[in-house]
Write a structure and sequence with these properties.
Elements lengths: L1 H5 L3 H4 L11 H24 L9 H21 L4 E5 L5 E5 L1 H21 L3 H23 L5 H29 L3 H27 L4 H27 L41
Antiparallel strand pairs: 1-2
């Protein structure tokens, strides 16, 4: 009751000084909701790790870290932190939340890595896809900080990076997953991720790109996309993974070295001497 009565005073504690377009109280309330949902998804996924065999936890661990990063970055944004003042082409100064891009630089590669591991493509392809996601996010960040129309050049390179990522995850990786017999599950996950990724350039163009929908509008758009991407995809991997052959997918981590009953290698004392080791009388 004390928390409800106290209300949201984040903007009083951390006021957005010196900007024309800033986060509102309602926008901060929404960001607290998004942060709470990320945190809830993180806690449930963390608890579910103990219910899964240790050898089958690769996606649990991967998405647990990504959800924790999402919780922290949304905490910063809801508290009106993690931003800097940026002037647009019209001379207006608005808030640019770089914490948003810190979240993406972890969440996007996490999804790309998970899709690559599931499909069974080569590590060269996986590393390339991860690098492409970083290029995508960083070029969008550069575009957001560029006050002139040159920002759209960075935007174009970032969007091209997404197109390359989509071609890889929907074509090459799909074919590899089909050979492993999990093409249907893979396409459900990859199709959902790419559908949402397709909307990020639109959201960026309307928010940090052109400031058409303002700071609050951008947070609503991106908040919905972020909630539908990482939490949904992470639980999709966990629930669909219950029927996968982890050993057949080469995703099972061996537990032999942790098994106290596992056979140990013989010591030198257990090895009978050979003829060459016997002394000649």
């Amino acid at each position: 009751m004390f928390i409800l009565a106290r209300g949201n005073d984040a903007l009083n504690v951390n006021p957005p000084v010196g900007v024309d377009s800033a986060l509102s109280v309602n926008g901060s309330d929404w960001l607290w909701v998004v942060m709470a949902m990320h945190l809830f998804a993180f806690l449930i996924l963390l608890a579910s790790c103990f219910a899964a065999p240790e050898s089958d936890r690769v996606f649990h661990y991967l998405f647990t870290v990504a959800l924790l990063v999402g919780s922290v970055t949304y905490l910063a944004q809801a508290s009106d932190l993690g931003w800097s003042a940026v002037q647009d082409s019209s001379g207006a100064i608005h808030q640019l939340f770089y914490a948003r891009y810190i979240n993406w630089v972890v969440s996007f590669p996490s999804v790309a890595l998970a899709l690559g591991l599931l499909s069974g493509v080569s590590w060269t392809t996986i590393i390339t896809n991860i690098s492409i996601t970083w290029l995508w996010v960083l070029t969008y960040l550069a575009a957001a900080y560029t006050p002139t129309d040159y920002k759209w050049a960075f935007f174009a390179f970032g969007t091209l990076s997404y197109v390359i990522l989509a071609m890889s995850t929907l074509n090459e990786s799909r074919e590899a997953a089909g050979r492993l017999g999990i093409g249907r599950d893979y396409m459900m996950l990859a199709g959902w991720a790419n559908l949402l990724w397709l909307l990020y350039p639109i959201a960026f163009g309307l928010s940090d790109g052109s400031n058409t929908i303002g700071v609050g509008g951008g947070f609503i758009f991106f908040g919905i996309l972020d909630l539908l991407l990482l939490p949904v995809v992470s639980y999709g991997f966990v629930f669909l993974g219950r029927k996968w052959d982890w050993a057949g997918l080469h995703l099972a981590v061996s537990e032999a070295r942790f098994d106290p009953h596992a056979a140990t290698l013989p010591t030198n004392q257990d090895v009978p001497p050979t003829e060459g080791d016997k002394q000649v009388v």
